[in-house]
Design goal:
globular; mainly alpha; 8 helices
Length: 166
């Protein structure tokens, strides 16, 4: 594994949050984990109950996270918590983080359909895998779907050197 992924900067740049000062990285790191945490809790409740309705209700939020510059759950921080902490708004999502939301949208859709059509064992298996992904992001700051995005599409070139950011 790339040693840069062991650093805060490396993990944030993996997700597309580039050009942030060290102070800004430390400030936003934990709050960028809020949306995945809410998704994990919501999805886990749906998987635990094998409820296609609960899972399906999360799908629009995941889809909006893929389509919009920020995740809908970031509103909780941007228009609430940050005023209590004195922080700035979270940076907008770029392609790797939005890819993660798009992947979650597809995964949740498949999972809701599995439970709807009583393929419960497969639904639970995929559900366990699903909640593992945001759990790793929440606890370690490592976003597996963003890592896949970088494997497929690489890192952007810097303007000054033509070198890949990593």
């Amino acid at each position: 594994m790339d040693k840069s992924l062991l650093t805060l900067r490396g993990r944030l740049e993996l997700q597309g949050f580039t050009g942030l000062s060290e102070q800004r990285q430390r400030e936003v790191d934990r709050w960028l984990r809020l949306a995945p945490a809410i998704c994990l809790i919501w999805a886990a409740a749906g998987f635990y109950q094998a409820s296609p309705e609960i899972i399906a209700a999360l799908i629009p939020f995941a889809a909006l996270g893929a389509l919009l510059p920020t995740h809908p759950f970031d509103v909780i921080y941007n228009y609430g918590i940050r005023f209590l902490t004195g922080g700035e708004k979270l940076p907008p999502y770029s392609a790797p983080r939005r890819f993660a939301c798009a992947l979650a949208t597809v995964w949740l859709t498949v999972n809701a359909l599995l439970f709807h059509f009583q393929a419960t064992q497969m639904g639970y298996a995929m559900g366990i895998l699903f909640v593992t992904v945001p759990f790793i992001n929440i606890t370690l700051g490592f976003c597996m779907p963003s890592y896949l995005y970088r494997l497929f599409f690489g890192y952007p070139k810097t303007q000054n050197t033509g070198q890949e950011i990593s």
